[in-house]
Design a protein that fits this description.
Among the domains are: 137-268, Methylamine Dehydrogenase, Chain H; 372-435, no CATH class. By secondary structure, the protein is an alpha+beta fold. The protein is globular and about 110 Å long. The protein is built from 15 helices and 34 strands. Strands 1-2-29-28-27 form a five-stranded antiparallel sheet. Strands 3-4-5-6 form a four-stranded antiparallel sheet, with no helix packed on it. A four-stranded antiparallel sheet has the order 7-8-9-10, with no helix packed on it. InterPro entries: Beta-prop_NOL10_N (IPR056551), NOL10/Enp2 (IPR040382), NOL10_2nd (IPR056550), NUC153 (IPR012580), WD40/YVTN_repeat-like_dom_sf (IPR015943), WD40_repeat_dom_sf (IPR036322). Residues 482-508 form the NUC153 domain.
Length: 688
């Protein structure tokens, strides 16, 4: 079981871990469980909860006892019994399922919409009836009061099939060229359909007339969104009588009140992928929206992110188990994922042991420590001279840096700075000496680091003390005496750089104010040099002249900022001139290039010709190579010609594959380390 946390919301992945093949014997399975810790500690909530290749849709029956999923290959439907924690039955189909609907409370009445324009009905014993619709269907909804099935697809018409009479009724004629999704409101049974033009049409099934039209494509485009084409509707669902959520093909989710044509909130996934599924979680007022890459949970009133999940494989469908915190997904992989989020609700009654398990894990948290790895940033790699290792297997990308082996880090540090130990030793000796000096009777003096800041704090502290004396209040603790800020006045790394651009622009009056403090600092240093004890700290009220100067400074702070900007521009010009002089003085050294084996060097123009050839089509390149005689053509045994070539992947595809590969490797290493630490708990007797 894998545990992740985002925004302090813990997510338990119950399907994480290795799965054993079905053809293994029980003896081999027991032997593998003894050898492999990951297999022994995995949680198999429902036995064989997977598909042969890919799962496309997943739904739960209204009584909560059965979970049904469809997938490939071959096209099939599997029903899982939650009371038995195993598979109930499996039925193979003639063609792939686009979507399906469970009409009864259990699995006894199911309707499948297949990709070959077929509509197939199944009863409790199996296949019952099969018919076809005129155009290819994409979605359908069931109207319970009239027993009508509404089919939408690659047509401007909405086909109606009455299950009571067993015949097709007059279809609804819409203005859309094609429709993608549809849904029926469970309260007042309003029929809504999402079109390819980015509009939502609402129809009244009683009068068979259109009662509303929403232009969601126009509302989804805001100042922050970037789209390539016209957004179409890819997901649609109702919540109660008045709320409706719409998902677009460009990755936006719009929440509507049916009484208004403007959306209440627009949420962008920022991936540009079509929204696959939208679910409402009423107890916490959350909306669960998913595209093929990420599942996001956010507040429907504010749009604030609650938590999110990124599975390893692409997402096809999301199903929220009713009245619980369990979430199931159909993926582009054989295994279907099961997540348990205790914040959303309790575990279902058929797996109530999950509540006890998660409570024990929260009571005894295990901290993950990477003792064998060192986290370094890009700047650290440049200082160590290891920036050329970026992209290799020696560095594992993580957040804003990389993980590297601690032994390699120590070796590189010794080579980059061989005297680091001597400097560390001197620093430790100096700290020990200062600690012994602190035990003696010391004079009241300023710290060695950030003297001006300390003097400013002393002055402000004196003024606050006088105010508190008048008001008879308690004195606040001093920052100089607080141990939390002690390092700021001892470690030279915390020294304020007054010459930096940020400091000079954000503090336009600091130059004049610092002159007064510098005068006091000089006086204090002279007194310390003479060995005179300072009986009083440099504090007190400012004179009339100082107050007048400060008021003049406050009035002219704009002029000071302008002066600082002019000085910064002049400094930048001087730096540019110095760099140009250095560039003129430097001599360019010749560069040597290594020619690959099997190639002949002709001229530098060959590279430009090759780039031009890569832009041509394959037919033109083959003709040109035949003319030049560079194409290797071999004769086969039949007498025909055979030419072999290798297609190069684009740079964007190569980078994306490398990023996905690194991401998978990181997850594997993190999972192995987490499982290694959890193996000490010995929690292997969850299922027998």
């Amino acid at each position: 079981m894998q545990v992740s946390s985002l925004n302090e919301v813990k997510i338990y992945s119950l399907s994480a871990g290795r799965s054993l093949p079905e053809w293994l014997s029980d003896r081999k399975k027991r032997a593998l469980q003894k050898k492999d810790v990951d297999i022994r500690r995995r949680i198999e909530l429902i036995q064989d909860f997977e598909m042969p290749t890919v799962s496309t849709k997943i739904k739960v029956s209204r009584d909560g006892q059965y979970i049904m999923a469809v997938g490939t290959y071959k096209p099939r439907v599997r029903c899982f019994d939650t009371y038995q924690l195993s598979q109930k039955f499996e039925r193979c189909l003639d063609s792939e399922v686009v979507t399906f609907e469970i009409l009864s409370d259990d699995y006894s009445k199911i309707v499948f919409l297949q990709c070959g324009r077929f509509v197939e009905f199944h009863s409790q014993h199996g296949h019952y009836y099969r018919t076809r619709i005129p155009k290819f269907g994409r979605d359908f909804s069931y109207h319970y009061p009239s027993c009508d099935l509404y089919f939408v697809g690659a047509s401007s018409e909405v086909y109606r099939l009455n299950l009571e009479q067993g015949r097709f009724l007059n279809s609804l004629q819409t203005e859309a060229s094609e429709s993608n999704v549809c849904d029926i409101n469970p309260v007042h049974f309003l029929f809504a359909m999402g079109t390819a033009e980015g509009k939502v049409e609402c129809w009244d099934p009683r009068t068979r007339n259109r009662v509303g039209l929403l232009d969601c494509a126009l509302s989804s485009v805001t100042a922050d969104t970037e789209i390539d084409g016209l957004p179409s509707i890819s997901a649609l669902t109702f919540d109660g009588a008045l709320n409706m959520a719409v998902g677009t093909s460009t990755g936006q989710v719009l929440l509507y009140d049916l009484r208004s044509s403007n959306p209440l909130i627009v949420k962008d996934h920022h991936y540009g992928l079509p929204i696959k599924s939208i679910q409402f979680q009423r107890p916490l007022d959350l909306i669960i929206s998913a595209d093929s890459r990420i599942i996001k949970m956010w507040n429907k009133d504010t749009g604030k992110i609650f938590t999110s999940m990124e599975p390893e494989h692409g997402i096809n469908d999301v199903c929220l188990y009713p009245n619980s915190g369990m979430l199931m997904t159909a993926n582009e992989a054989p295994k279907m994922n099961i997540y348990y989020i205790p914040v959303l609700g309790p575990a279902p009654k058929w797996c109530s042991f999950l509540d006890n398990l998660t409570e024990e894990l929260e009571e005894n948290p295990e901290s993950t420590v990477y003792d064998d790895y060192k986290f370094v940033t890009r700047k650290d790699l440049e200082n160590l001279g290891l920036s050329h290792l970026i992209g290799s297997t020696l560095l594992r990308a993580y957040m804003h840096g990389f993980f590297m082996d601690i032994r390699l880090y120590h070796k590189a540090k010794m080579m980059a700075n061989p005297f680091a130990y001597e400097e560390y030793r001197r620093e430790k000796i100096r700290q020990k000496i200062e600690e012994t000096r602190a035990q003696r009777v010391q004079l009241k003096k300023l710290p060695k680091v950030n003297k001006e800041l300390a003097l400013k704090l002393i002055e402000e502290e004196g003024e606050e003390q006088q105010i508190t004396r008048k008001r008879k209040q308690k004195n606040l603790p001093s920052l100089l005496k607080d141990d939390r800020f002690k390092v700021m006045f001892e470690n030279p790394d915390f020294q304020v750089d007054e010459q930096s651009e940020e400091f000079r622009l954000l503090n336009p009056l600091v130059s004049k104010i610092s002159e007064k403090r510098k005068r006091k600092l000089k006086i204090l240093e002279e007194l310390e040099a003479k060995g005179e004890e300072e009986e009083e700290e440099p504090e007190g009220k400012a004179s009339d002249a100082e107050s007048s100067e400060s008021s003049d400074d406050e009035k002219g702070w704009v002029e000071e900022v302008r002066k600082q900007r002019k000085l910064l521009r002049q400094e930048e010009k001087l730096k540019r001139r110095e760099r140009s002089k250095e560039d003129q003085q430097t001599l360019l050294k010749p560069q040597f290039f290594e020619i690959k084996e099997g190639e002949e060097f002709r001229s530098f123009k060959d590279s430009a010709k090759k780039q031009k050839l890569m832009k041509e089509t394959l037919e033109d390149r083959l003709k040109l190579e035949e003319k030049l005689g560079t194409l290797n053509v071999s004769d086969t045994t039949v007498g025909s010609k055979q030419a072999t070539f290798k297609l190069k992947k684009s740079e964007q595809q190569r980078k994306q594959q490398e990023a996905e590969k690194r991401h998978r490797q990181e997850r594997k290493t993190l999972r192995r380390s987490a499982n290694h630490l959890k193996s000490k708990r010995g929690r292997g007797r969850l299922f027998h």
